[in-house]
């Protein structure tokens, strides 16, 4: 460790965000450009180089966090980039999009603010690109084996890159017109600008990975035919089967799923549309669901100049500090967090009736009310207790011209025929079944990411992609030197 007293003398300092009034007028990332590098070496000095670094266990990728913290504190960006990329294919993605369970597991977090691990990570990744430290790494020779990867989200891309670098010929099949999965059309531009994604895709193409776009496996190409054309197939199609809200009035116009709304806004940023046909401009918006997808809808609606935006969370408002009995360190605690979108909504006063920022906590939707034309106009809700029982005399209504459902996902969408054409066995919860080697019941077909694990964090998706690549490499060649950071049944640390 470069400074043995750094954690005692240096306070935590996060990457500053741009002023709210400035950033809601554009779709650029919310952070102040160039403001991270001047502070990051001192922040890396706060790492205690613990004898047992629990940040390793909290991150499924097994990132070598104390090592690259020390290297950053010494301004050794080349070595830091090497150690970071040793465990993570896409650190500029995770450094921007991951909620950082590593920080919850930081030993310093027992009684102090954690090391800004996420900020150090993204600083290394961005610096690596600036200094030319992330060149393509094509294989020395080809194996003669072919692999199809279905899906180009973080799990599919990680699997494809690992397998390509191992010498296999890899083709990634993506149903959309551009690769990236939810990172392309689900994550708003203000959370991660697409130039970061394009840069990695260019790297992958230079290494030899091929992309087959606008090709839905099961429709545009038969799933069984695909299996017959390749030596192995990896299903990394994501968990895109969204959960519904079965309440009276759901059939009214103006009620949409979050993943019907967000992609259109992203297509405006891509230049495909001049404006979104589902714009929130001038509308009273209610978002049902308190998770990250709901927050993405919130930030998007604010930028589209909604008249008001309220986000409903069925859970009660969490406290500001960890409950050490219910969620002891180093588990990831449910505490009150203020995302950039919530900060914006709070500053702009978008939801006058909210409990905090734009959120109504402990709120359950009862029904929707529409006008004579069949369009939604109101949402009725009720307060619930910790057991989700209705609190008497707590019913209220909110104006609602646009309702967005952000209730999570249950598994892969069965509508494209992929699962049924291959005859894949499924788990009761709607995900693809697999054994302890990531293999499905169909020989040569493997499953990874949200399609098999269920909706999870980007770090788990990348870890799954790296691990399934090792399993496929072993299947094709009899052995593998590729890293496998997790098994298919590993889960985050919980009480």
Structure description:
Pathway: Amino-acid biosynthesis. With 495 residues, the protein is α/β, with parallel strands linked by helices. It contains 19 helices and 13 strands. The strands form three sheets. It has a five-stranded parallel β-sheet, with helices on both faces. The protein has a five-stranded parallel β-sheet with strand order 5-12-6-7-8. Helix 6 crosses helix 9, helix 7 (91-97) runs antiparallel to helix 9 (117-130) and helix 10 (154-165) runs parallel beside helix 19. It is globular and about 65 Å long. The mean pLDDT is 96.
Q: Which strand order does the major sheet show?
A: 3-2-1-4-13
Relative strand content = 5-15%
Net shape: globular
Helix content class: 25-40%
How would a textbook summarize the main sheet?
5 strands, parallel
Content-based structural category: alpha/beta
| Radius of gyration, whole Å | 23 Å
Number of helices: 19
Number of strands: 13
- Runs in which pLDDT lies below 50 for 5 or more consecutive residues are none
Q: How far apart, in Å, are the first and last alpha carbons?
A: 31 Å
Overall residue-averaged pLDDT value: 96
Keywords: Amino-acid biosynthesis, Glutamate biosynthesis, Oxidoreductase
Protein name: Glutamate synthase subunit beta
Pathway: Amino-acid biosynthesis
Pfam families: Fer4_20 (PF14691), Pyr_redox_2 (PF07992)
